[in-house]
Amino acid sequence: MTDSTSRLLGERVSQLRQLQSMTLEQLAAASGVSRSMLSQIERGKANPTLAVTQRIAQTFGISIGELVDDPNASASIDVVRGDDPGTVFRADSECELRTLSPLQLEKNIEFYVITLQPGAELASAAHFEGTREMFSVSQGSALVRTGNSEVALLTGDTAHYRADIPHVIRCEGAEALKGFLVVSYR
C-alpha cells in the first residue's frame, strides 16, 4: 500500500471504531486482529494483509471496498434530470411513470413519480417474492388494489402494500392523480 492508502485505511478504521464506541481491545477481540497491529494500522504504520483487512471490514459489517474507499475522492451526488427522456417508462394520454432513481445503480429500492388521468390506472403484474410498494398521493384521489384488498386514498394519504401479487393504482377523482411510488425488493 502507498503511504496515502495506509493513512486513509488507518483514519477510516479509527473513525469507524470511535463511531461504534469501541476500544482497540474490543476491536481486537471482535476481529481477531491483535491490538498492536490495529494500533499500527490506525497510525498508518502497518501494511495489513488482505485477510486482516477483510476481518476488520467484516467486524464493522462493511466490504473491503467500503473500508478503503475515500468518500471524498469521487462525486457523491447523482442527479436524475426532470427533462431526461430516459427516465420515462410510460407516457401516454392516460399515464406518465417516471423514475426518480439513478438508472445505472443496482438497487433494492426504486422511486417513481406517477401521473394518472381521471379513470386511468397503472396495473402491475406480481413482482419478485417479498416486494412491497408504498404509494403517497400528492394530488387527487386514488384506489389501490392488491390481491383481494383495496383502499381509497386522498391527497396526503400513503398506502403500503404487497407487490408480489397483481396490484393496481387507479385515479378515482375528476382531477389528475399525482403521487410518489416507492418499490422495495427484499
TrEMBL record:
Q: What are the entry keywords?
A: DNA-binding
SUPFAM superfamilies associated with the record: lambda repressor-like DNA-binding domains, RmlC-like cupins
CDD domains per UniProt = cupin_XRE_C (cd02209), HTH_XRE (cd00093)
By its UniProt entry, which Gene3D superfamilies does this protein fall under? Jelly Rolls, lambda repressor-like DNA-binding domains
Q: Which InterPro entries does the record cross-reference, listed alphabetically?
A: Cro/C1-type_HTH (IPR001387), Cupin_2 (IPR013096), Lambda_DNA-bd_dom_sf (IPR010982), RmlC-like_jellyroll (IPR014710), RmlC_Cupin_sf (IPR011051), TransReg_Diox_bact_type (IPR050807)
Q: Which residues form the HTH cro/C1-type domain?
A: 13-67
* SMART domains per UniProt: HTH_XRE (SM00530)
Looking at the Swiss-Prot or TrEMBL record, what is one Pfam family this protein matches? Answer: Cupin_2
Q: Is DNA-binding a UniProt keyword of this protein?
A: yes
Q: Could you identify this protein by its name?
A: Helix-turn-helix domain-containing protein
Q: Which organism is it from?
A: Congregibacter brevis
